[in-house]
């Protein structure tokens, strides 16, 4: 460790952590959360150096593993030094510094014989990890042997890179190792902590990594100049003609099937004679177990103009006019119950049920024993992997190439290689029928674009033949002789060479191709998200196209992070990140009606929460989910920094063919104006607050209301009437003072009555007035609900910050959306609070406890329901405490345990109310720079 010395200059956040290292690492752990490209690797190496003890570094992939060794040589050792012999890549032969993957440790502890048994998953149907088979005795023997060697080497520091991967099986091996080494110092580094896991899994994660000691967001790093300005763009497209035909055929078959189903008197009779319909009271217990199926039968019969008895509707607590319209989703629920789940209940109608099942199979609307009419897997796959995305990639490459010219450094990430689709010769030009690395490469090669194309995957590397000279120079600089590199001319094009490195030197191949890319030997590089999507360090990337179908929070953020790093060679760098989305034309043109039969008489309420009310299909839905994973610059004026799809400002876009083209052209105009992008970031980053930062909030279009107002009105009217009576009595007194004695008796009676009434109403009026003052506005109501959640979580110990130092803040925007956040708490406390608050506001899943709020204004009665958050409802005493807080801050309610027969009936009515509601409750977590 004495030979190591940092050769560069520390970034602001790195220096702050290093200056306070002694205090931060006091609990034998350092847990840092920072965005991709923020320099976590360098920070981890410096912490390791300062601790000065033998270290085991673990990374999630071989690419990232090799980069640790490269950073160590480049930034901590004299120039041109070869890799020291005290660095090992084999946990079975550890040294002063041992750098391996989590997979390697897991395999070694399991008794696997190979050193690196798991490769990056780059082929379809590969899960990225072969099963590790070994007997328990062999595994125990291997584990003890490895631990003994690590102890002999006196390993006292564990560095966990991209620690969010510890949610996988690997954490077990690491936990055993940590215990065996006797509380070593753990340095955990990640860009994406697993905030979305349940509390038990988070506790496990935190037990290994320690509490979070420092967190820095992407906007903060852009503000400091440690990440470059960047923007997300979406290229929309329609499916190819063949794909559109397949979609139209499937949807036409579905529409025909539904039309026939609705005309089937036999099927209608089968539903009418189901015991839940004929004898609902006797079957309440079964109905409680599956409220959705019972609801689907009622909705179907209502659409068939069957007048349902009120006794049946009373089980759901709804009136006939409140029954929802029959939609494709409700038909799915109904058919799944009839054909599969409750088939035995339709024994008398077996021929009819069998006929419908056969029809569903004929139109391929059955998958793994489940009816899928809206978006079956075949439709999902067709849209997600649409070949129109290949045309979109060519359009983007042409645009960016014309704009950036020789400065272009574009990376395109896909899921699979599809090596078998490489042409076998110059005349072999087969049609391209699937998405993947090779299909993308071939599409670009055939397009005639003047770019330098290359491929970088774990098993296939292609470079332009003209760039061989540059790659040889890079190899020579690394001490790799020509005899260790194998070039082979591509059979299909003399302009390309395949590249392989022999033996141990193969570890350098990613670094070499990355360097070639940085020097301009490749300007458009196609690779897999498995190899390059996480941890790959290529600061020169200024354009990224995400052609991967991955939509998870972690991987989406990691892939996007490849483009936003600063480039020391190009200090003015601004990056474009392109997303691809295919619109479902069948939903767009509404060729399948969304409702059938009788329509609801209720008008659907407008919803300002949704900026894109039209359904564009499942591929766009996946893209919306992806956008919740990261913060970025809005397209609005003035520009802001926030998470979510709404920042693209597409609410007024038209979604016909011409409108899609207009939207793409708008995106293209923004994309080529990189100078304006930097200015907009500068404007958005300078907040009005003294200390700006990312604020995580809950955005909701709903807040508990109405019931408090009814009670408030009732008491205040009563009190007002009483006061009016007293005033009237006073008037009579004045009349008596003028010697009109005949009213004296009436005056006394009225005075006594109204005085007693005033005394009776005073407590209620005071409470109603207090609630009205406190909850009178939407923001006030949200704050009171949030306060009840906060104090309950603090009482349980989930939030440990002092109550005096934390506060609930709520604001209302011009569209009627309420924003709520928790100030003064830690990151995980804010996350737990927002999750719990969201459960209160959205329709129920399956809560153990619910709050029932009812009020009556003379003849009019209203009932509303709210779920007790699952984290609070696990213990009865916590649920009771939350109910008491709710009564204090929000209004009177009754706590109902839903696992009892009576409680399950109440829950059923809760669900039915949410089914029938024309206004959908929505609450989403989002982040804003404020």
TrEMBL record:
<feature type="compositionally biased region" description="Acidic residues">
    <location>
        <begin position="116"/>
        <end position="125"/>
    </location>
</feature>
<feature type="transmembrane region" description="Helical">
    <location>
        <begin position="748"/>
        <end position="766"/>
    </location>
</feature>
<feature type="region of interest" description="Disordered">
    <location>
        <begin position="114"/>
        <end position="137"/>
    </location>
</feature>
<keyword id="KW-0472">Membrane</keyword>
<dbReference type="InterPro" id="IPR050742">
    <property type="entry name" value="Helicase_Restrict-Modif_Enz"/>
</dbReference>
<keyword id="KW-1133">Transmembrane helix</keyword>
<dbReference type="Pfam" id="PF04851">
    <property type="entry name" value="ResIII"/>
</dbReference>
<dbReference type="InterPro" id="IPR014001">
    <property type="entry name" value="Helicase_ATP-bd"/>
</dbReference>
<protein>
    <submittedName>
        <fullName>DEAD-like helicase protein</fullName>
    </submittedName>
</protein>
<dbReference type="InterPro" id="IPR027417">
    <property type="entry name" value="P-loop_NTPase"/>
</dbReference>
<dbReference type="InterPro" id="IPR006935">
    <property type="entry name" value="Helicase/UvrB_N"/>
</dbReference>
<feature type="domain" description="Helicase ATP-binding">
    <location>
        <begin position="21"/>
        <end position="211"/>
    </location>
</feature>
<keyword id="KW-0812">Transmembrane</keyword>
């Amino acid at each position: 460790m004495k030979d190591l010395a940092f050769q560069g200059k520390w970034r602001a956040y790195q220096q702050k952590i290093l200056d306070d290292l002694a205090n931060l690492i006091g609990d034998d752990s350092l847990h840092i959360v920072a965005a991709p490209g923020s320099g976590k690797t360098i920070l981890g190496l410096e912490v390791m150096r300062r601790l000065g003890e033998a270290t085991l570094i673990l990374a999630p992939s071989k690419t990232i593993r090799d980069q640790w060794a490269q950073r160590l040589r480049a930034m901590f050792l004299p120039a041109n030094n070869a890799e020291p012999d005290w660095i090992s890549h084999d946990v079975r032969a550890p040294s002063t510094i041992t750098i391996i993957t989590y997979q390697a440790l897991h395999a070694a502890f399991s008794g696997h014989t190979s050193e690196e048994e798991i490769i990056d998953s780059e082929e379809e149907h590969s899960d990225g990890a072969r099963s590790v088979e070994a007997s328990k005795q062999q595994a125990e023997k291997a584990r003890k042997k490895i631990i003994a060697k690590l102890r002999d080497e006196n390993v006292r520091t564990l560095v966990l890179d991209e620690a969010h991967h510890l949610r996988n099986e690997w954490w077990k091996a690491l936990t055993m190792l940590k215990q065996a080494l006797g509380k070593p110092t753990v340095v955990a580094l990640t860009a994406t902590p697993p905030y979305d896991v349940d509390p038990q899994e988070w506790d496990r994660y935190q037990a290994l990594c320690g509490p979070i000691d420092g967190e820095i967001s992407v906007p903060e790093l852009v503000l400091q100049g440690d990440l470059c300005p960047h923007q997300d763009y979406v290229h929309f497209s329609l499916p190819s003609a063949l794909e559109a035909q397949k979609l139209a055929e499937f949807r036409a078959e579905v529409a025909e099937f539904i039309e026939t189903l609705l005309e089937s008197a036999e099927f209608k009779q089968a539903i009418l004679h189901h015991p839940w319909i004929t004898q609902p009271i006797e079957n309440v217990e079964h109905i409680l177990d599956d409220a959705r199926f019972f609801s689907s039968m009622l909705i179907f019969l209502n659409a068939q103009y069957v007048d349902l008895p009120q006794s049946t509707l009373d089980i759901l607590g709804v009136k006939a006019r409140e029954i929802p319209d029959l939609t494709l989703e409700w038909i799915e629920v109904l058919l799944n119950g009839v054909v599969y789940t409750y088939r035995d209940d339709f024994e008398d109608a077996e021929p009819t049920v069998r006929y419908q099942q056969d029809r569903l199979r004929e139109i391929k609307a059955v998958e793994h024993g489940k009816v899928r009419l809206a978006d079956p897997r075949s439709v999902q796959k067709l849209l997600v992997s649409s070949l129109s995305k290949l045309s979109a990639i060519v359009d983007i490459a042409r645009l960016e190439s014309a704009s950036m010219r020789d400065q272009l450094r574009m990376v395109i990430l896909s899921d699979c290689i599809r090596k078998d689709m490489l042409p076998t010769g110059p005349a072999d030009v087969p049609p391209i029928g699937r998405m993947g690395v090779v299909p993308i490469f071939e599409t670009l090669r055939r397009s005639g674009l003047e770019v330098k194309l290359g491929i970088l995957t774990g098993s296939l590397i292609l470079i332009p033949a003209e760039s061989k000279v540059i790659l040889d120079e890079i190899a020579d600089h690394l001490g790799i002789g020509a005899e260790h590199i194998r070039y082979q001319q591509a059979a299909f094009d003399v302009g390309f060479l395949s590249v392989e490195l022999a033996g141990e030197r193969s570890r350098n191949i990613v670094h070499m191709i990355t360097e070639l890319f940085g020097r301009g030997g490749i300007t458009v590089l196609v690779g897999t998200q498995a190899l390059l999507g996480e941890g790959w360090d290529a600061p020169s990337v200024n354009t990224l196209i995400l052609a991967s179908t991955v939509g998870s929070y972690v991987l989406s953020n990691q892939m996007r992070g490849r483009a936003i790093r600063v480039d020391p060679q190009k200090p003015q760098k601004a990056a474009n990140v392109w997303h691809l989305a295919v619109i479902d034309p069948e939903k767009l043109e509404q060729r399948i009606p969304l409702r059938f039969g009788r329509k609801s008489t209720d008008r659907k309420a407008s919803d300002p929460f949704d900026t894109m009310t039209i359904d564009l299909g499942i591929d766009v839905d996946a893209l919306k989910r992806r956008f919740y994973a990261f913060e970025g610059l809005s397209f609005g004026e003035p520009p802001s920094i926030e998470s979510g799809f709404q920042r693209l400002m597409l609410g007024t876009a038209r979604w016909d063919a011409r409108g899609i083209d207009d939207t793409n052209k708008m995106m293209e105009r923004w994309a080529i104006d990189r100078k304006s992008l930097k200015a907009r970031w500068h404007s958005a980053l300078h907040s009005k607050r003294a200390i700006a930062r990312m604020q995580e909030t809950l955005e909701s279009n709903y807040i508990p209301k109405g019931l408090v107002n009814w009670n408030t009105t009732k008491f205040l009217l009563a009190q007002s009437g009483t006061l009016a009576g007293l005033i009237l009595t006073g008037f009579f007194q004045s009349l008596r003072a003028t010697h009109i004695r005949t009213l004296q008796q009436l005056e006394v009676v009225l005075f006594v009555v109204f005085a007693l009434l005033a005394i009776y109403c005073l407590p209620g009026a005071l409470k109603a007035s207090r609630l009205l003052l406190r909850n009178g506005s939407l923001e006030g109501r949200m704050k009171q609900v949030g306060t009840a959640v906060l104090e309950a979580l603090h009482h349980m110990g989930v939030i440990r910050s002092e109550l005096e130092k934390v506060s609930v803040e709520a604001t209302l925007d011009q569209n009627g959306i309420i924003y709520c956040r928790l100030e003064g708490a830690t990151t995980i406390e804010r996350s737990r609070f927002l999750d719990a608050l969201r459960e209160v506001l959205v329709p129920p899943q399956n809560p153990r406890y619910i709050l029932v709020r009812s009020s009556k204004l003379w003849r009019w009665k209203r009932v509303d329901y709210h779920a007790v958050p699952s984290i609070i409802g696990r213990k009865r005493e916590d649920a009771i405490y939350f109910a008491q807080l709710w009564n204090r801050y929000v209004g009177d309610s009754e706590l109902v345990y839903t696992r009892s027969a009576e409680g399950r009936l109440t829950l059923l009515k809760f669900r039915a109310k949410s089914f029938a509601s024309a206004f959908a409750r929505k609450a989403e977590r989002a982040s804003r720079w404020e």
